[in-house]
Amino acid sequence: MARTGDRPHDLVTLLRTRAQVFGPKCAFRFADRQIRYDEFDRETDRIAAGLRRAGLGAGDRVATLLFNTPEFLLLWFALAKLRAVLVPLNTALKGEILRYELDDSRPAGLVFDRRLASVYADVRSQIPIAHEWWTGPAGGDELPAGAVPWLSLTEERPAEPPTEVPDPWEPAAILYTSGTTGPPKGAIIPHEKMLTTSWEIGQRSRLDAESVLFTALPLFHCNAQEMTTLTSMLYGTTAAYDERFHASTYWTTAARFGATHVSLLISMINVLYKQPERPTDRQHSVRTALTAGTTRALWTDFERRFGLTILELYGMTECGCTTLMNPPEAVRVGSIGTPLGFVEAQVVDDHDRPVPPDTRGELVVRPRAPFTMFLGYLNKPDQTVEAWRNLWFHTGDYVVRDADGYFYFVDRKKDVIRRRGENLAPYDVESVLNRHPSVLESVVVGVPSPLGEEDVKAFVQLKPGAPADPKALFEFCAQALPFFMVPQYIEFIDAIPKTANQKAQRFQLRGRTGGRQFDRTDFGVQLRKP
């Protein structure tokens, strides 16, 4: 039975109650379709009945290779009505990683966009899946034999709608972490966790009845699921989706949807800010940007240019796409905010001992109520125990906390570079490089040094038409950074490799070979040492 209280605690109760209260209101907007709350409830009943006719039920997993389309949302909630589990896979996956995640999750069914049919076909024989449905535009790749159209699920109307309601602690989804530093892990996400996070986000987002939450982040990621979809449904507003992020048309698309709130990650912020200034930069309805990674140097200029307020936050798949967030009435520029109500947060040293204010340490968190964080990693009990050591979940990120309880992100703990006896954060070097007028984006990694420990290497993506002038970049860094942070090497790259949620894939760059690398010592750049 679902719990009662001030809000729903499972996805089925969420949809049923919102359909009753907000029936004819637009729940979701896509480029070519709008879906009302009551329509969404009816349509997911039909899909759930179709899945049940196929033999799927409680506990069964259905994987997806879907873009931001209505089918993703319809399948997600139809599965919830069967107490089944969604396994949304990154649409950029292929080959061994795709095979690994399908093998790890062992889904009973798969729904894929036909534009990805050949990608799936390459691994299909290795991971037999009982049920396969395809959707998407006509044409494109040849469909695997035996796969049937998505619409076949709705060919018959259900005699009775599904009546089962999940318990709050039951798994709603298995979300794979991005795998930027190792093999992907499937985080098991209960219904309660999804809705607790989303409810708390809404509490700090200053929503009203006319709010429209817009995202261009992928629905297979927790950000678009919790921050946009579920937050919007909990508060009876409207969610809008673009299939992918397009910097040149982002604000135009947001305006077309009537967006009031948007979700942005650091690379999106940087690229948007690097776009040529236009008279239309403020010709939109967006008033709040929920962001992750905004630098102190860019923060106020971004707000001024685009006419909005930044609410900076921090989160991750395991503990909520938003775990800390700035209070809207007391934002501190540069801070990732304070813990949301469902979680405790602490800063600890390498032995899990709390550190004083303004001291760098690892961020650890734990829930204040049951089932408000992930249940563990699928098939990985040892890694689950390691992450939860000493009764705290270890985020693997360095932060500092000030005397007033505000947290400030420093860097990922595993990405810290050790150079000449000094620890340095790639984030600090990237923040300087990204301010250079020729630089679109940069990623900094540690590379082996002939002197031991590591040297600093920067991969730089230039703005279109900008000159490749490594000496100018070395000198720019030498002027703005302590000597031990100035890159030893620079390599220009056509595009920074990223996950679909726009995180730089540092592990790919660390192992990159064959590019032309520029060495600072070849240019006679002088470093100022104390």
Q: Which labels suit this protein?
A:
disordered N terminus; 28% helix; GMP Synthetase, Chain A, domain 3; single chain; alpha/beta; 14 helices; five-stranded parallel sheet; 530 residues; Rossmann fold
Short description:
This protein is an alpha/beta fold and 530 residues long. It has helices at residues 11-22, 37-53, 70-81, 95-105, 117-124, 191-204, 222-234, 250-257, 266-274, 296-306, 381-387, 426-433, 470-480, 506-510, and strands at 26-30, 33-36, 61-65, 85-88, 109-113, 131-135, 148-149, 171-176, 186-190, 212-215, 238-241, 261-265, 288-292, 309-316, 320-325, 338-339, 343-348, 361-367, 393-401, 407-412, 417-419, 422-424, 439-448, 454-462, 489-492, 518-519. Strand 3 (61-65), helix 3 (70-81) and strand 4 (85-88) form a beta-alpha-beta unit.
Strand residue percentage: 25-35%
The low-confidence parts are 1-5
Spatial arrangement of strands, main beta sheet:
2-1-11-10-12-13-14-15-16
Backbone CA Rg: 24 Å
CATH architecture of the domain at 35-155 and 162-188: 3-Layer(aba) Sandwich
Secondary structure: helix percent: 25-40%
Per DSSP E runs of 2 or more residues, the count of β-strands stands at 26
> What is the CATH third-level topology name of the domain at 35-155 and 162-188?
Rossmann fold
Alpha-carbon distance between the two ends = 66 Å
CATH class of the domain at 35-155 and 162-188: Alpha Beta
The major β-sheet equals:
9 strands, mixed
Mean pLDDT comes to 92
Number of helices: 14
Choose one word for the global shape. Answer: globular
Structural class: alpha/beta
